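name: query_chain
kind: protein
chains: 1
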Amino acid sequence: MDDRRILQAIFKKLLNAYGPRKWWPARTRFEVIVGAILTQNVSWRNAKLAVNSLKKARLLSPSAILVASHEEIAPLIKSSRFYNQKTEKLKAFCAYFMHNYNGSLDKMFSGDMESLRRELLGLKGVGKETADSILLYAGRKLSFVSDAYTKRFLKRYGLNYGSTSYEGIRSFFMKNLPKDLYLYNEYHALIVHHGNAVCRAKPDCNGCPISHLSRKIFCSHYYGSK
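structure:
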């Protein structure tokens, strides 16, 4: 079975096992962007608490974040860790967004995806995972999100993904999956859920819904891969 077929077979098994993840949980596209920045190096639960605090304080808009002082914002997002740095990141994104796109998400996401990705990566505190999360979940662009869960997933299941770099892993998925927004969205979310529920640092291979697929799969349970 080639990589394209095994990826699609894995997706179907994960979807059947866990159901649709309906990710990214947010009411607006701007909330998705704020969440993508705040969830860096922290669990989504803690990032969500910070998003809700901003919402309650009526600071969940680009203009409100720009007008508010650092001292007003930082305590509200304390649950997201590194809250001083993340306050600066939020302000930097909002300044860029208002200056370049007049506060219009439609305008920001209307252009070429790779050009916008380069712009986002040029912003303070926006790394590749954050940029791709913004593009996929807020912009509905076909940019696959890679992360530590994805890398561990590929290694443990013996997929021939080539380069272990972020760009190499992202390219592997984008070359071998159909160009389908729902698939990109759910696949990444399912991998994250699988990495939290079963394929953890110490995996529960007996509970793995994909270990029995008809391909030689190198699971860490047998080979000690981390």
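note: The chain has two domains: 3-21+145-223, 29-138.
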